[in-house]
Amino acid sequence: MTVKYVVRKLSDVSKERSTCGFRQRLITSADFEGANITFLSVYEAGRHYHKKTTEFYYVLKGSGHLELDGEKVEMEPGTLVMINPGTKHRAVGELEALIIGVPPFTEDDMYLCE
To answer: pLDDT, tens digit, for every residue of 55-105?
Structure first.
C-alpha cells in the first residue's frame, strides 16, 4: 500500500551533529525522492558546497548571516535564501532554519572547503 501522507513532529526526530550544526531530518529521500526537509540549529558551521543539491534556507528564529562565495547575506526570521550547487557556503550566528534540499541531500554530495 502506498503511503498517502507523512506526519512528523520535531520532538519525535533525533538530533544529529552535522557540518552546519545540529539537524533533525523531517523528510528524507526515503519519504519523498524529490526533496528533503531538515530543521537546523546552526552551530560552528563549516564552509562547504554541493555539486548536485540546491538548498533553500528559511530562517524561523534568531539572527546571523550566510557566507556565500565570500559574500555576507544577513539572515533574520522570514528570510529565504536559495543556494545553487557549487556555491561555497556556511551559516554564522544563532539561527534556527528549515532547509529544503532538491534533489535530496546525500552525504556523498558534501564537499568541505578549507
So the answer is: 999 999 999 999 999 999 999 999 999 999 999 999 999 999 999 999 999
Q: Where do the structural domains in the chain lie, given as residue ranges?
A: 15-112
Please report where in the chains the cell 539572515 appears, as a residue: 75
Buried b (16+ CB within 10 A) or exposed e, 16-44: eebebbebbbbbbeebeeebbbbbbbbee
Q: How far apart are CA 10 and CA 98, in angstroms?
A: 11
- Residue 77: cis peptide before it, omega within 30 degrees of 0: no
Selection from 10, 31, 33, 86 nearest residue 55 by Cα = 86
Is the domain 15-112 a CATH 1.10.540.10 member?
no
β-strand 89-102 against 36-42: which pairing, if any?
antiparallel
CB 33 within 8 A of CB 11: no
Closest alpha carbon to 36 in 95, 88, 106: 106
